[in-house]
Amino acid sequence: MSWNLDNDRPIFVQIVEHLQCDIVSGVYAPGQKIPSVRELATEASVNPNTMQRALSELERDGLMHSERTSGRFITEDITMIDKLKEELATKRIEDFLKQMERLGLSPREIKDLIAKKVKE
Amino acid sequence: MSWNLDNDRPIFVQIVEHLQCDIVSGVYAPGQKIPSVRELATEASVNPNTMQRALSELERDGLMHSERTSGRFITEDITMIDKLKEELATKRIEDFLKQMERLGLSPREIKDLIAKKVKE
DNA sequence: ACTATTGTATTAGTCACTTAATACAATAAG
DNA sequence: CTTATTGTATTAAGTGACTAATACAATAGT
């Protein structure tokens, strides 16, 4: 999956979200070692400092931890990962519904539109 | 409706989106005069220049037009407004579905979650 | 005619994000 | 022990968004 970073929002924020997705969707398994800061930075075409900042955020939240010279590892706490997954999903659904209602669409219309899109 | 601006994205972009919503949802009727740059800026707690920038964007897209000293008016082209409404809705649905799939949820799961939320 | 209000333009300064270029500490690997 | 690789920290510079403070032009209202 490419990184697809844009200039609409801070890059480090987008990286955090990208990695959160990779974690909750299983791209990175619990306990798995992830590439080094420098590797990830190259891969995403950003400065190592920017990648470092994103990783620090994730570390602060307990989603990963670093071991001085061995590298960085995803947490093994599956409960934490599942909880994050539900949080992210819930938040996105709520944001989405709010946005759609602000466009003047009724819950009923929204539901139908989704059902139609999902069929495709 | 309060403006609810955050620091995650450029404020002028958020203002553009806010006003687009107000137009397609009918808060501002076609042809209606909208408050002055200075009034809107005060209301949204931003600098007049920032509001001006957002309004210029909307004007560039043809959604409103300014008349030197009479003020600014929403377009009377209802077709344009309806088209925008559909564009915005479609884009948001697609973005939403992409995000949810990246979290590792199947279309089926997504549909069920929405249905559940909409019931509330 | 005068005045207030409108949109618009200009210039400067502040701040956060980003990049760049290093440097250092710790340790796994040889 | 030596070396390469890891995470981490520091300093400087560039960029864009935002604010601030004006100034000007046009015209509706009086």
Give structural attributes.
DNA-binding; homodimer; three-stranded antiparallel beta sheet; 120 residues
Structure description:
With 120 residues, chain A is mainly α. Chain A has two domains: 11-76, Winged helix-like DNA-binding domain superfamily/Winged helix DNA-binding domain (Arc Repressor Mutant, subunit A), CATH 1.10.10; 79-119. Chain A has five helices and three strands, in the order H-E-H-H-E-E-H-H. Chain A has helices at residues 11-24, 37-44, 48-60, 78-102, 107-119; strands spanning 33-34, 64-67, 71-74. Chain A has a three-stranded antiparallel sheet. In chain A, helix 1 (11-24) crosses helix 3 and helix 1 crosses helix 4. The longest helix of chain A is centred in the C-terminal third of the chain and has 25 residues, at 78-102. The radius of gyration of chain A is 17 Å and the shape is elongated. The relative contact order of chain A is 0.12. The mean pLDDT of chain A is 93. At the A-B interface, helix 1, helix 4 and helix 5 of A face helix 1, helix 4 and helix 5 of B. Chain A binds a DNA duplex (30 and 30 nucleotides) through residues 7, 10-12, 36-38, 46-50, 52-53, 55-56, 66-72.
CATH class of the largest domain in chain A: Mainly Alpha
- Stated plainly, the CATH topology of the largest domain in chain A is called Arc Repressor Mutant, subunit A
Give the CA-based shape of chain A. elongated
- Name the assembly state: homodimer
The order of strands across the largest sheet of chain A is 1-3-2
End-to-end gap of chain A: 22 Å
Could you report the average pLDDT of chain A, rounded to the nearest whole number? 93
Number of domains of chain A: 2
The helical percent of chain A reads 55-70%
Total strand segments of chain A = 3
Q: Specify Rg of chain A, calculated over alpha carbons.
A: 17 Å
Please describe the biggest sheet of chain A, giving its number of strands, its sense, and whether it closes into a barrel: 3 strands, antiparallel
The helix/strand series of chain A, from N terminus to C terminus, equals HEHHEEHH
